[in-house]
Amino acid sequence: MSKSTLSIVDNRTGKSYEIPIENGTIRAMDLRQIKTGPDDFGLMSYDPAFMNTASCKSAITFIDGEKGILRYRGYPIEQLAEKSTFLETAYLLLHGELPNKQQLDDWVYEITHHRFLHENIKKFMDGFRYDAHPMGVFVSTVAALSTFYKEANQIKDPEVRRKQIVRLIAKGPTIAAFAYRHSVGLPYVYPDDELSYAGNFLNMMFRATETKYKPNPVLERALDVLFILHADHEQNCSTNAMRSVGSSEVDPYSAMAAAAAALYGPLHGGANEQVLRMLREIGDKKNVPAYIKRVKNKEVLLMGFGHRVYKNYDPRASIIKRIADEVFEVTGKNPLIDIAVELERIALEDEYFISHKLYPNVDFYSGIIYEAMGFPVSMFPVLFAIGRTPGWLAQWEEMLRDPERKIARPRQVYIGADKRDYVPMEKRK
Ligand code: ACO
């Protein structure tokens, strides 16, 4: 009968070990018993960038990168994008189940009534330079929230945690819109409780002199779906930051600021900004083959392509491509879409991209839609952060409830100098 164990023979000592296999993994700590002698620390696994290490057990998001599958709490992303709303999806991520009518109404009411920022936060945001990048402002302001809600550090109290989760989901769009309005010198627009989550965000971003802002329903729904598509993605770089920083038991504002900072990088949530810059640089469909050549020569990356987990079409990219058509019917076509479609067409036929399993990821088309909707490129990572907020918080909550939780603290393989004595200045070369 087959056994769920792994037999290891240490050829240094000739000793054999039998290690349990659970959920397709072995515990790295089980390797520690493998020693050459009593002074040996024991075997470790070496895995820079966590290429093959599960850092937690999670019941939130399932991805099959080979098949291009993404599910939140078991529900396929395609069904949620078609039938759910962002706030309902946020509830699902956080609670594990879809809400009933009353639960959803209460949840939406609570989020809607926590959108306002303390007036001092507004003053704090005023202090940023006129040309501050909105993502830098977002990261700093989220961190600053911890100074306004001092109870937030009582992270062992579930009710305190719940309150901060509501605040972060509710206030994220307000911070984001204020960051944008600050960067263009426009007065801040306060939340409108009569509007939906996405509709109100559009109001806070774009309202001009009208007394009542009426969001275009197609754009409102498109934005809501884009938030759903970004809501969680298991143990990506920013979520890992959320869990890792949160494992020190710091308050959620500080942990989420760290997660948002991780998202800011061009290899993660900053990629959609880079995609737009790349498409502008290419400038015309006829320049696509020359650009692909540069990618294959490894001079540049094809931004918005490739993914650590997806080795197939990112399911979010196909949904976004469909949304693009609906949005362009309202806004007019973004001319960059033709370049993007041509890039995708050529890349998907090319041996380099096929053999490297490089497909469009979520960022490839999202920026083109955001731009058509009137968002400046610098706001793209901020939009991503608003969408990802419930995911970060669900993962944080799950981490805190995990009986195996400990402070995240990887090991290292030390390859530096052996012990040596301090050299006085006059004797140094
Ligand atoms: N363009 C060209 N070549 C690429 C690309 C790309 N976008 N992505 C990967 N490759 C190549 C690498 O050069 C490497 O080639 P080699 O084996 O011949 O040396 C191979 O594919 C594997 O690439 P890695 O960088 O090792 O893959 P990794 O899993 O570490 O990186 C990442 C994943 C960071 C997403 C990468 O594909 C990338 O930089 N893409 C562009 C940036 C981007 O779109 N990021 C958004 C990701 S989605 C998100 O965060 C929401």
Question: Which tags fit this structure?
Answer:
2 domains; binds acetyl coenzyme *A; two-stranded antiparallel sheet; Cytochrome p450-Terp, domain 2; Citrate Synthase, domain 1; mainly alpha; three-stranded antiparallel sheet
- What structural category arises from helix and sheet content? mainly alpha
CATH C-level label of the largest domain: Mainly Alpha
Instruction: Please mark out the parts with pLDDT under 50 across 5 or more consecutive residues, or reply none.
Output: none
How does the overall form come out from the CA principal axes?
Answer: globular
Portion in strands? 5-15%
The helix count comes to 17
What are the bound molecules?
acetyl coenzyme *A
The helix-strand sequence is EEEEEHHHHHHHHHHHHHHHHH
Structural features, described:
The chain has 429 residues and is mainly alpha-helical. The protein folds into 2 domains: 72-269 and 388-401, Citrate Synthase, domain 1, CATH 1.10.580.10; 271-372, Cytochrome P450-Terp, domain 2 (Cytochrome p450-Terp, domain 2), CATH 1.10.230. Helices cover 49% and strands 5% of the residues. The chain contains 17 helices and 5 strands. The chain has helices at residues 77-83, 86-95, 101-112, 119-126, 134-144, 158-184, 197-206, 217-230, 237-246, 252-264, 271-282, 288-296, 315-331, 336-349, 351-355, 363-372, 380-401, and strands at residues 5-10, 15-20, 61-64, 69-72, 75-76. The strands form 2 sheets. The chain has a 3-stranded antiparallel β-sheet. The protein has a two-stranded antiparallel ribbon with strand order 1-2. Strand 3 (61-64) and strand 4 form a beta hairpin. The longest helix has 27 residues, at 158-184. 40% of the residues are buried.
